[in-house]
């Protein structure tokens, strides 16, 4: 058994090393601009962004449909127009954007991204198209306490995960406890609920939040900044000389025509429109779409998870040592790693070979994860059936397959139904993790509504109620069938 485990782990390691090294080598060996050629061949360019960073990128409602707007989106449209291709936008968490770029999920990233030296090691950057500054948001009631970064020594402060602001806070605020939070709306919520004393944010974004929230105020950061830490540029895959040249040409045109002030003004108009009606009823379509995707992922996750779990359970109970060992290794490996890591491996890791859509990757990851837990539940149920039942079925002349099908499994299912139901209920809640790769489930829509309305708590309350309705309804349905099993 130990040899089998060792073999499985070595195989997984070899696959990972091969995938990573092979991808890197192919890029270095090929001097042609693969990304540009791919864009021109298919007729569209894919933009990766995190739409929670007004006025750079955020979402608004137009004709009852959500759309991405902001300065970066306008720049991206100009780039697509100059290339003569369509623009497709893929939304995801900020700290997943560069991974998406490296694995070919997106062709460029515009998301208020600073071209730092560390990032330049992994991706290429265009010329700088915008220069801002770094500010700190505080609650207005604390205006007399905090003046700049030096006021936050040994205080709690937050910034977006993976951002320049996070690194600045860590390096330049002595003794501060810095929290990394993914979404801008969550940063503001942490500030308003006094979880942190300040939020480090790029100046235009900080001013946008302050303009739409009377309880917070912008103060000068006072950080020591190099050129990269005040600049914003377009990120693209390594070794993209043609694409970089084309994008730089567009940036030069934007600067020559002085279009950025116009784009920022348009973004401000959208921001004001978002705050005209911030009632949750106004955003019911967002939540309805989120519920729809959550239910879809959960149903498919339950079906494929149950099939996978049943197969794994039967393999673990088989007489074949190799199959039993493989099944055991799979179950232990999946149960020993976080679902988020599995999701990112399916979406980004397998993306080196197969370009899976985010929704498909989410369903696969959730199903495979659930299958490992269902396998143990079913295996326990099968083992709980009394040996006398097997012996009686055998004495009646039933073969092994028929014994399992007609005698053991029906009794096992009756025994494990409550535990199986708990797994299905948990699946609804755990499916929320797919939002990190841009699947528009309920959690994703919650974040969008927070960003659009600048309201932190109300969207959370709505999401909690909707999750409760889904899980409670499923719980009632499972109990109904449990009573039928018991009465039968």
UniProtKB/TrEMBL annotation:
Pfam families: BPD_transp_1 (PF00528), SBP_bac_3 (PF00497). It is a multi-pass membrane protein. GO terms for cellular component: ATP-binding cassette (ABC) transporter complex. PROSITE patterns: ABC_TM1. Gene3D superfamilies: MetI-like, Periplasmic binding protein-like II. One of its GO terms (biological process) is amino acid transport. The keyword Ribosomal protein does not apply. Keywords: Amino-acid transport, Cell membrane, Membrane, Signal, Transmembrane, Transmembrane helix, Transport. The chain crosses the membrane at residues 286-315, 345-368, 456-478. SUPFAM superfamilies: MetI-like (SSF161098), Periplasmic binding protein-like II (SSF53850). Residues 291-478 form the ABC transmembrane type-1 domain. Its main location: membrane. It is found in: Cell membrane. Residues 1-19 form the signal peptide. It comes from the Bacteria. GO terms for molecular function: transmembrane transporter activity. Belongs to the binding-protein-dependent transport system permease family. HisMQ subfamily. NCBIfam families: HEQRo_perm_3TM. This is Amino acid ABC transporter membrane protein, PAAT family / amino acid ABC transporter substrate-binding protein, PAAT family. It comes from Pediococcus pentosaceus (strain ATCC 25745 / CCUG 21536 / LMG 10740 / 183-1w).
